[in-house]
Amino acid sequence: MSDSHPGHNPTASRPSPIDRAFNALEVLAYRHSLWVLAASLLLACLSFWYTAHHLTFNTSRQDLISPSQKFHQLFQDYRKAFEDFDGMIVVVEGNRPEPMRRFAEALVSRLQTRQELFSEIYYRIDTGYFRDKALLYLETDEIRELGGKLETHHDFLSSVNRSPGLNTLLESINREISAGMVGSLMTDFLGTGGGEEKDDTADLNMLIALVKQMRAHLSDPDAEYRSPWSSFLQDDENPLEKDGYLVSDDGRLLFVLLNPVETEGDFAGSKNSIELIRSMIREVKPDFPQVQVGLTGGR
């Protein structure tokens, strides 16, 4: 005769396999607590060791975009072909081109000694390729202006060409200046100038450039030579731009573009590069009080 009654489930009081497994683990931990504690400490130490040697962080913003996106693939191909200067920019501000140029050269020469921190330093374009082809890159108005100057100073150029030399050049410049002064005086006296004022400072550009070259080579025989004819044929308003430096339109700002080497997974980013640049700027700046220097970009 069974003692079961209606509604009674004989399997309801039986523990589940999961309960039995936890009960067995409880008994094991109770009876061999020291061994369990030692195994736990060992596993914890192994976890710390594995984390320290294998856990990495990817800080690249590019990985936030799906690599299957077409525009992302095109951008990656573009980055491989053309370096993207989205790192840092050193801005040099001044009213005189020469101190700005010398500061940039001094700073870049120091930065180039630490190339392990910079993948690229870009501040000047090599204009040597364009020198023999300069006329091909002039605007139409600039070509007309150049032709007008050659026609106006035909006699001067002919006299210098017949007898090249410093004496002939200075004598011809003197005649040009004298003729220009006489013409200006007669125009003002006769009142035929049409009310237009002429800027005669450009007529002295070549003489000023020639005297500067003479003085530079007297003080330093190895000084860089700059032809005075460039100042005669064109206005030397932005010499830094003509020498290939990266400058603003008004010539008051000179730019040095830097791409720092960033360690993948390093949250500090380009911190080491930024601190190095700032220290080098502080070292070079006292020799050039005429310029102001700033650093922008980076993270």
Give the topology, please.
Blueprint: H1 17-31, H2 33-54, H3 70-81, E1 88-93, H4 97-111, E2 118-122, H5 128-131, H6 140-152, H7 154-162, H8 166-190, H9 205-219, H10 229-233, H11 239-242, E3 253-260, H12 271-284, E4 292-297
Helix pairs in contact: 1-2, 4-12
Characterization of the model:
The chain is an alpha+beta fold and 299 residues long. Among the domains are: 17-51, no CATH class; 139-235, no CATH class. The chain is built from 12 helices and 4 strands; from the N terminus they run αααβαβαααααααβαβ. It has a 4-stranded antiparallel β-sheet, covered by helices on one side. The model is unreliable at 194-202 (pLDDT under 50).
**Largest sheet: spatial strand order:** 2-3-1-4
Distance between the termini: 85 Å
Count helical runs: 12
Portion of residues in beta strands equals 5-15%
Tally the beta strands: 4
Q: Quickly give the structural class.
A: alpha+beta
Largest sheet: 4 strands, antiparallel
How would you name the oligomeric state of the polypeptide chains in this document?
Answer: single chain
- What does the average pLDDT come to? 77
Rg measurement, Å:
38 Å
Helices and strands, in N-to-C order?
HHHEHEHHHHHHHEHE
* Residues in helices, as a percent range: 40-55%
Features:
299 residues; four-stranded antiparallel β-sheet
Summarize the structure.
The chain has 299 residues and is α+β, with helices and mostly antiparallel strands. The protein has helices at 17-31, 33-54, 70-81, 97-111, 128-131, 140-152, 154-162, 166-190, 205-219, 229-233, 239-242, 271-284, and strands spanning 88-93, 118-122, 253-260, 292-297. The chain crosses the membrane at residues 34-52.
